[in-house]
Structure formats: C-alpha cells, structure tokens
Records
---
Amino acid sequence: MSNVFTLLLKREARLLCRRPAELANPLVFFAIVIALFPLAVGPETQLLQTLSPGLIWVAALLAVLLSLDGLFRSDFEDGSLEQWVVSPHPLPLLVLAKVCAHWLFSGLALVLLAPLLALMLGLPGRCVPVLLLSLLLGTPILSLLGAVGAALTVGLKRGGLLLALLILPLYIPVLILGSGAMQAALQGLPAVGQLFWLGSLTALAVTLTPFAIAAGLTISVGE
Amino acid sequence: MTSPFLETQSLACERDWRLLFEHLDLQLLPGQMLQISGPNGSGKTSLLRLLCGLMQPTAGEILLQGQPLHTQRHALARNLLWIGHAAGIKGLLTAEENLLWLSALHVTQDREAIWQALAAVGLRGFEDVPCHTLSAGQQRRVALARLYLPAPPLWILDEPFTALDKHGVAQLERHLASHCEQGGLVILTTHHNLQDKPAGYRELDLGQIAA
C-alpha cells in the first residue's frame, strides 16, 4: 500500500517537473505581490514592518489558491481519476499522495522563498524562524482544504471563482493564526500558542481532508 | 449451474432527465463476452460506468457474485480492469512510465514485463517516448498494453477498437477471445462487427430496448 503512495508521489513529481511553467506561476505571483507593495505604500520601514505579517500571509494564501484550480483537472480529463476510483487501493491514500506532491513543489517552494521576500519588507531577522514555521505548518492546510474544493469543482468548466468562494471562508482561521504568530514575533512576544494551533490544524487536515477529497472526486467522476 | 458473476436486475439509467434504458436484466458468467451496441447516446458508456461502480443506477440493482455491488466495492476493484474512452494515459509521461503506474493500481510489474507488453501491442522502440508525441492509435495501444500484463479477470472496455488499424483490431479481437476462453469475462462497446467471437459471445442492443 505504501508502495503505491511512493509510486504516485514519484509520478506526480515527474509530471510537475515536466511542466515547469505551472510550478513557477504561484511563486512568481507570490514574489510580484510582495515586491509591488513597497512601491505602492512607500519605503517606510516602520509601516512595511507592521504590514508584513498580513501581507506575506495573504500573498501566500492567494498563491496557493491560484495553483489549486488545476490540481485535478488534467487527471479528470484524461481518465486517470476514473482509474483511481475503480482501483483496489483506498482513494484517500491516493489523493493524499497527490496533494503531498503538489505541496512539496508549490507550498514548500513558497516557504523557502518567503524569508527572502520578508527581508525585502524589512522584517527583522529574529522573526524569520517564526515566519518559516508558520508557513511550514500553514501551507499544507491551505493545500489540503483547497484540494477539497478542487475535487468538488473539477467537473465544472469554470470552477475557479466557485473554488475561491467555497474555500476562502475555511482559510480564514489559518490566515488569522499564521499572521498572528508573526505579529507576536514582531512585537517580541512568544508565538508558540498560534504555532501549536496551526500544528493541530495541520494534523486535523492531514487526517480528515483526504476522505473529503476522495468523496468529492467520487461525486465529480460519477456525474 | 454456476451462479452469475455479474448480474443486473431491472436496471434503469437516467441522464439529464432523459431515460436511457430501463428494466435491463443481464446475467454474465465467466468465459462470456458481452458486446453492447446501439446508436450514439443510447447509454452504452453509461451502462459500462454503472457496471464499474463509477455511477449509481437510477433504479434497479447490480449484483456481483450474488451480492449488491455497493457492498462489494473492494471485490469489484480487485477483479476489474476498466479502460474508458479516456484511458488515463498522461501525454507528458513515457509509455513505460504510464504503464508502470497503471499496472501498479493492480499488481506492480517490473520493467521487463512492461517492455514485453509494449512489444506485444507493436510499440517496441517507443518505450521511452513521451505519449503526447505518439499518434492516437499508438496512444490507444499503450492503454491496451495493460491487457497483456497479468490482469484481473473482468475487463470492461469502452470502444477499445477506436483508432486502431486493421491489424491491431484483429489482434485485439483474438486476444479478447482467448481471455474469454481462459475463463475471463469481457464487456465492451463497439460499433464494429467482431470477426473472432468466443463461444460465450452475446450481444446487447441498447437501441432495441430503449424506452
């Protein structure tokens, strides 16, 4: 069973590497939004510093959302999803592998890019570990929750806007906790509480959303 | 008297408020081949998808080895090989990579077995070519190569002959017939008149039973 998980992970990684433009899109979006802000609000370090937690998190959230619309689209169109649904392997395990691969290549890349962009916003170096940790714990939740919406809207021709409407309310707790952790770090307060909350939400998302994604895909394929 | 492997009881299917068929009773035994024919839009693919458990019937019931299908999902999955109109072939992956993954959904195969299966469908030398560069017929052959790997007994195939050349059609017909003679069960849709019919051949014309 774990064999299928690693095989699917490898297959997805291979597919993503052969379409580098799709990988770069959310990263470029993330970088552009953050690079444009100082130009728009002016180069005042104090102001940018205060804005940076929210700004980085909103940009990361939208970048993840942007990358999720097509998550299952090609698998739906070429019949791969049907093969997964009729296979003897548990569908939640397969979708977890798929989302894992997607997160490794988009979410993790965002996390690695974030410190660089944070320095552009004048975020002090002591806040970088909290920034990294909050994104590391938060982006998997964004990917997993988004995948639920992507699974439900995969059969629709233009599911993009509907996906955003469905998923954004669910993203709000993650956004508040993530930017809250960074705000606390910025003011020199401990951010452990918010990080623990994010961690528990990640654990909850990893265990429960694969079942919701699988159910969504079964509905979409059965239409 | 052996009990039927797959059975439908007054099955009905509705799509977009249009009744495709109703009161469909079928009994399929191992060793049989069922060809489903009928005009376009008569519900051939829908019937196959119902039998695969991908769709839920509007009315009636499907039984697998005498048990309702929805309680037998796992037994069905272990016995079923489904190749739909879109066969799950990724254009960005090579023929070998595609087959490696698709066969792993049942039993993981080694490279040797996959190369042999590709050679059996006439794709020797195309193992490491990305599938989007292959022709439509060659892509169909990649999907059909799954039938030459150790496969589950129940084959449900939607238009397997599409885009194949004459030689490919004849070879696939022979292969399907020999699968039936070895106790397998094949359900397929095609408009094509089969030349090589196994002993257990049956035909179902959905055009005639349409409501």
Note: Strands of chain B lie at 6-15, 18-28, 32-37, 59-64, 67-68, 80-83, 154-158, 185-189, 200-205.
---
Amino acid sequence: MSEYFGNIKTGAVTIASGMGITLKHFFNAIHRKGDAGVDDAAYFRQVDGLCTLQYPREVIPTPQNGRYRLYNNIEDCIGCGQCVRACPIACISMETIKVAADDLALCGKTSDGQQKKFWVPVFDIDVAKCMTCGICTTVCPTECLAHTPVSDFSEFDRSNFIYHFGNLSRLEAEAKRRKNAELQAKAQAEKEKKAAEALKENSGGE
Amino acid sequence: MSSPALSQFSIPFLMGNNLNAWSEALAGFNLLGLPLGLVILAAIPLVFIALYSLTYGVYGERKISAFMQDRLGPMEVGKWGILQTIADILKLLQKEDIVPASADKFLFVIGPGVLFVGSFLAYAVLPFSSAFIGASLNVGLFYAIGIVALEVVGILAAGWGSNNKWSLYGAVRSVAQIVSYEIPAAIALLCGAMMAGTLDMQKITILQSGSLGFAHFFLFQSPIAWLPFLIYFIASLAEVNRAPFDIPEAESELVAGYFTEYSGMKFAVIFLAEYGSMFMVSAIISIVFLGGWNSPLPNIGSLALNDMTSGPVWGACWIIMKGFFFIFVQMWLRWTLPRLRVDQLMYLCWKVLTPFAFVSFVLTAIWEVYVP
C-alpha cells in the first residue's frame, strides 16, 4: 500500500519537475543562446535560449584556414601535373601546351619568379567528387592549389560542379597548338633538309 | 420569412443580452421556409474549430513545441512562419486521396467522418457565451459525455477498414483506452454535476457566477474539487489520445496508429477531429470546474472588475481563453512526458484514477450534504 502511494507521489513530483523544466525553456525562447565560443569560460553556462541557426541568413563562419572548396590560382600554375597524378579519385583533369620560345615572356612567371613553361588550357576540378583530402595541395610545387574556407556551394545542375580554371580559351589554345605544330613542322623540315644535305655531302665526297 | 423572426434577427450585438438570446434569435431565423438560422448556428462552432485548429492548433502547437525544445519552429513561410499552416492545407488539398486496394472501402471512408462528427456533436451543448448555446439541453453534460463515445466507432472503423495491422492495433488500443477512461472522467464530472445539482451546461455556468469572480468557481467552492478536476483533466487527455496517452498512434511502434493509411483530406479531417475534441474537453473542464463564460476577475471594492468583464461578448472571450489555456497545458504535457506503456495506461486508469474518482465522489457528496 505504501508502495502504491509512493508511486503516485513520485509520479506527481516528477511530472511537476518535468513540466517546470519545459516551461522554463518555453519562457527562455525569447532570447538566443549565447554565442560564446569553446575558448570562452562561459561556454558551458549558456544552456538556456534558442539554439536554431536560420542557416542561409545566419552562418557560423568557417575557420580562416578551413579546407573546403578546392581553388587553383592559375596565374601561379606551372602545369606540372603532379596534382592530377596525386588525386586519389581523379577529380582534376588537365591539358597542357608547351610554350613556344618566343611566347615565354607572354606566358610569364609565377609569383615567386619561376618561368612557366606550359600553357594550361584545361584545368578542371570536379568539386562534387573532391573529398578535400588535400593531397594535391601538398604535392603542388608552387602552392597555387589550395582549399578555401568556402563550404556552401550547392548547385541545381551537377555540371556546374566542374570548375574551370584554364588560362586559355579554346580558340587561343587552338592557335597555340597550330603554332607549335608549325614550329615543329619547320624544325622537322629543317632537320630533313640538313640530313639530306649531309647525305648529299657524304655521297659527293665518295 | 416570418416577420417576428426577421425583427429579432439583426446584427448579433443588438439581439439582446438575455440568456441564450443570440442562439434563440438565430434558431428562429427562417429564410423562404428553410431553417437557415439553425444551419448558421451549427456552422459557427464548425468555423471556430477550423479557425482555431488552423491557427492555435497546428501553428501554435508547432511553435510551442519548438520553444519548449529551444527551437524556432516554422520560420520560412511568411513572417515568423505565420502562413505555414496555409501552405500545409494547400499541400493536403493537392494530395491524392488514396484508398488502399484491400481496405474495407465503406468503413475506410466513413471513419474520419464519424470521428469528426463525434467530437463536433458535443459542441451542441457547449455554452460559448451566456447568450449562445447550440442546444440548451437539460442533460447537456450527460449528452456531452455520451456522444463522445461515437468517436470510438470512428476510430474503430478507420482502424479496421484500413486492413493494416498497425491501424488495427492502434484502433484497438484507442478503444480500450477511451472506454476505460470514460469511467473516471464521468465520475469526476459527476462531482461537478453534484455541486451544481443540474446537468444543464448553461445552468452549471450560471451557478458559478458572482461578484467575487473566480471564488465562485466550483474548483474553489469545495476543498476536494481539485481532485475530480485533476482526474477529469488526466482522463480527458486519454480520451482525446493526447500524449502521454497517445499509444493509439504511437509513432515509434505503430507508424501512425489508426490513421496510418490515410492521406490528403481524410487525414486532415482526422486531425481536425483531434483538435476539435481537444477544445471540447478543455471547454467541458472549464465549464464544470472553472466557471465557463464567467469572468474570473472579482469586484474589488469600488473597482467592479467582474461587472466590467461580464456580458455575452466577454463570456465568449473567457470560455475560449479558458479552453485555450487547457489546450496549452495539454501541449505542455505532450512535450514534457514520454508515452505510457499499455499496461501502465491501464494501471493508471483502473488502479489510480478510478478509485480516487470514487473517493472524490463520496467526499463531494458528503461535503454537499453536510456543509451548507
């Protein structure tokens, strides 16, 4: 019998205390939970208040050195292709064109003064595939490839996830290729001419 | 169109403030021989249920639950998400009305209707104001307790007709629960009826009016009235299947209980019935124990607060406010307590509430007989 009344008493007391807690939270809903960071001494004391973050309008900033979306500063890219080889999931695709000798000045140098020897008409990163492992950034010799703190880059069309960083348009790339081919053809012709002359000389000498 | 009825029918506030003046004026209003007034009389609580469940019921509950859990709740549709319910209704209207192929089509279709009618019929005897009551029955309280049992038929029809094990479990649990809890609920209300000496809802309310405001309410008229009040409140939670007695819908075990298979407007009607019966039990508890449409404010000396806040329009405000307060407590409990187990539910009903209801019945009887 005492257990019976004890149960009823426990029930009443616990319901009352539970309702007290919910009511406290209900009235605390007029203010936000404090925004003290982990470093703050008050961090664990901010229990009461709304904790909803209305995301697109309110954002907790990502760390300044956060490693999210991959970005290539093509001005510094020498087109060595190490990142392409290092990427475990092949999300980087790259095409390079050798810079002709008279174009070297036009192609320019990297910010630390290294002469760029390749045009990079195609440097595509599929950020949907990228898993932000950071291996490509560690192998990059010029440190032009880096993760940025941008973390929200959703798209409606999957093809928009392929980011293009190439420094030549298609027409320019075509022109450079033709120029290289012409140079090569010229060099080849010269070589053949030389070889033929040498052959003639040799045969004439006999 | 009879001329006396026409002369009586004018804008509501000119119909007089006598007891039941508005509803009688409406009931006497015939247009071309059709009892249009009666239709309006029945439509007023219906519109009230729809509006209140749209605003306070759905939006209010979502907000209250959110605030109790440190969330914001709906915020996107309109300022503070006010239009969220409108968006929900639009979505429900566009939904396909699915009737499962192997369901008992007749029972499946009438289930939500019977459920809603069951909760709506009790509104006939709820005095919404001193001048407005749907039907001034002299057995109003008895009718209100009895007619709610129709809900059980609706739930059973919905659960059985769905031809789904979850639905059937939910329906059977719900029926067992409602039928069990009718007993403590009825005995607790009987205590109120004993204190009033009548079953007429309007008379019960009038007996609780006076210049001292809340001191005339039955809850404060006897030292044991809090016990039947509490018992009826707990039992009414079980009768409307609200948490912590929501084992008929028990999401974690039964998906959605007896309305698992419902979609679209039928689902909306089931929800409307739930909100309808929530206000119905809240109104009954406020009428029997907390003075219905009477103002709780007392006259303090020359400051006649009670006289200032009495009258048919004030009465409507008071009973709706009291009802809404109890709905708030229902929501508050819902977001505080976890669900009871089936055996705990039956334990609470048969071994706690029913004996205490009998005790309070006897004590109230003794109080009423021996204390003047």
Note: Confidence is low (pLDDT under 50) at residues 1-11 of chain B.
